[in-house]
Design brief:
heterodimer, A: 331 residues, mainly alpha, B: 310 residues, alpha/beta, Rossmann fold, Alpha-Beta Plaits, 2 domains, 6-stranded mixed sheet, 14 strands
Chain lengths: 331, 310
């Protein structure tokens, strides 16, 4: 026999707003994703990478300071390196806006590009939990019968995917920028590296929005929990394999890979070519070094296939939106 | 006055491809316990889904709790609970987590949602199993959990789609008792869709019968029974032959049913002639059930008429 009153009680509290209900959906999705052990491990790896990036920024920052512990240690390894370090120090003093901005822009470009596969992998693991499982278990009806619309539901699920990428990508990258500059020898590093942060945010937010919507589309493709991640990984791997094969004969085939398209967007956002050219013109030692870069590489850096990539990404988004509209019918 | 009706539809139609699932349904439903009857594929679930705006209406209009379906779907669903016919739990979630989550989706703050979820799980009679994953539940537990999630936000009206499906007789009785108490004791309007007539007859005051998407009957159970008076089921402790002989003298058809009861067609608007006969014959009945098959007969007749008309 229950010790408390088990009769029906009316509730007379205040209902929370619509955004809280959307947040509940997003939070529930993220919690479900983080219950997967592999996901937690992946997130840890990403944050460790962020830590390594912070250490690198600290190391580079110290190289730019005359007589720092790092410079002294480098000199003990090779006396010529001391000359190189002095050059860097002079460079910093003469062109702080170039030395910090260029260095961090290049570093954050590569860091962003290298960390993205982890996010794509994380999304692949999370895809069954986005829409697939709700379609398979009919839980979608429960969402639809509550005080949330299909739009609210999709917004919540979108936020789940977005949050997951933020956790495995944008979070570590931004944290590395902040910590790296916090440990830098000069506060001016924050100011001079603002372009790198702006590029990271612009590219990150664009890519995250795209990947989240694409993941929702793929997740809505089937009600089988093994099928949707398979589609995702197949697309990712095949796109990656197909691009290099097709580059000579059918270059447009490269645009079938969302990863390739996002890389082109990254090149356009970070504008590495411009940075390298500026460094080449202002620092003679870099001028010599950068002359060794292959012309086709420089051409690729200077003129990314922005138009083709944008069209391809928009087409992919259209496909994803179409799939979602068909499978998760709006009211 | 529009406010005296919880559901109003006007020429409500829903077409799937070439199939007309609802065909010009016009209804005005007062609060209470409402039984939505019809054979399989009659359009019961479609009607409920249209009222909840889970399916877009092809033509016509509908209002629930005075709000227009199609324009104020979110507001309607805030005040309405729904248990779908099929399983709808979220895999990997425990029963109490699921009901809490459903309450949060309706706008309850987390603390209130959790407390209310436990209260509702208590109300539907779920014990410690609420902490187990819903995937491991029996059909009965799932039905209870579905009912709990439908009422967790304290709705004004609850749509129950075949809530006793897959339950054993004891489980059915318990769930029906809970549903009946929602309407009778706590003032929540219950719309129960079912093809099991005796379940509906047990708890509902109003009956809606639809078939092939058309509204056939909408009346109170009392009126339906009144229109079918003239028969009664008599439960006897003694020999049925005595009553059979007495009925034969009055030329009333009398049939011994497999359950041992006697079905007497006294052909009168009230039970008085039958009671008089029993008194004259010195037969003491244990129970008299008036118009025992009124709903079934109405249902069958309505279906036959619908079939003939089509």
């Amino acid at each position: 026999m229950p010790l408390h009153d088990t009769s029906y009680q009316h509730w007379q509290g205040v209902h929370l707003g619509l955004w809280s209900r959307r947040w509940v959906i997003a939070r529930n999705g993220l919690t479900a994703c983080l219950q997967i052990k592999g996901m937690r491990q992946l997130a840890t790896v990403c944050w460790l990478a962020g830590l390594i990036m912070t250490a690198m920024l600290f190391f580079i920052g110290q190289l730019l300071v005359a007589d720092s512990v790092v410079v002294q240690w480098v000199s003990t390894l090779n006396p010529n390196l001391q000359t190189f370090a002095r050059l860097l120090t002079a460079w910093l003093e003469q062109h702080p806006e170039i030395s910090v901005r260029t260095t961090q822009n290049v570093l954050f470009y590569y860091f962003s590009i290298d960390l993205m596969p982890f996010s794509i992998f994380a999304l692949g693991m999370a895809i069954p939990l986005l829409v697939t499982r709700d379609l398979a278990s009919n839980a979608i009806i429960i969402y639809a019968s509550k005080a949330v619309s299909r739009g609210d539901y999709l917004l919540g699920k979108f936020a789940t995917a977005f949050g997951l990428i933020a956790l495995t990508w944008l979070g570590p990258v931004c944290a590395a920028w902040f910590m790296g500059n916090l440990l830098a020898p000069d506060w001016r590093f924050f100011w001079h590296s603002r372009a790198a942060l702006a590029h990271v945010l612009l590219y990150g937010l664009c890519s995250m929005s795209f990947l989240s919507l694409l993941a929702l589309g793929v997740s809505a493709l089937s009600t089988k929990e093994k099928a949707t991640p398979t589609y995702w990984f197949l697309w990712w791997v095949l796109g990656g394999v197909l691009g290099p094969i097709a580059i000579q004969t059918r270059p447009w085939l490269q645009h079938l890979s969302f990863n390739y398209n996002l890389d082109q967007i990254a090149l356009a956002v970070f504008r590495l070519g411009t940075d390298l050219k500026t460094a080449q013109e202002n620092v003679p030692v870099f001028g010599e070094m950068l002359r060794n870069i292959q012309p086709q590489t420089m051409a690729a850096l200077n003129t990314p296939a922005l138009g083709g990539a944008s069209v391809a990404l928009l087409l992919m988004l259209g496909l994803a939106a179409g799939t979602i509209a068909r499978r998760v019918k709006p009211e | 006055m529009a406010s005296q009706f919880v559901i109003q539809t006007q020429g409500l139609s829903k077409v799937y491809g070439h199939q007309r699932a609802l065909d010009g349904v016009t209804l005005q439903v007062a609060p209470g316990a409402i039984g939505l009857l019809g054979p399989n594929g009659a359009g019961k679930t479609t009607l409920l889904k249209c009222l909840l705006q889970l399916q877009p209406i092809t033509s016509g209009s509908a209002r629930v709790l005075g709000r227009e379906v199609g324009r104020e779907g979110r507001e309607i669903r805030k005040r309405v609970g729904y248990t779908p016919e099929e399983d709808c739990h979220i895999p990997g979630m425990a029963g109490c987590e699921y009901v809490t989550y459903c309450a949060q989706l309706c706008g309850l703050p987390f603390q209130a949602a959790r407390q209310r979820a436990h209260e509702m799980l208590d109300f539907v009679g779920m014990g410690q199993e609420r902490y187990r994953k819903a995937d491991t539940y029996s059909t009965g537990m799932k039905q209870r959990m579905k009912l709990a999630q439908a009422i967790v936000h304290d709705p004004e009206i609850v749509f129950l789609d075949e809530p006793t499906n897959g339950l054993d007789p004891k489980g059915q009785a318990q769930i029906l008792e809970l549903i009946a108490s929602l309407s009778r004791t706590y003032g929540i309007t219950v719309v129960m869709s079912s093809h099991l007539l005796h379940n509906v007859e047990r708890i509902c005051e109003q009956i809606i019968i639809i078939a092939r998407g058309r509204l056939l009957v909408h009346d109170s159970l009392e009126n339906l029974k009144a229109s079918r008076r003239g028969a009664a089921e008599v439960v006897l402790a003694g020999r049925p032959q005595d009553l059979q002989a007495a009925c034969a003298r009055r030329q009333w058809p009398c049939e011994l049913l497999p359950n041992g009861h006697l079905r007497v067609e006294h052909q009168a608007g009230s039970l008085n002639p039958l009671l008089q006969l029993l008194a004259e014959s010195k037969i003491v009945p244990l129970e008299i059930i008036p118009s025992p098959n009124a709903l079934e007969e109405t249902f069958v007749q309505a279906l036959e008429m619908s079939h003939a008309a089509s």
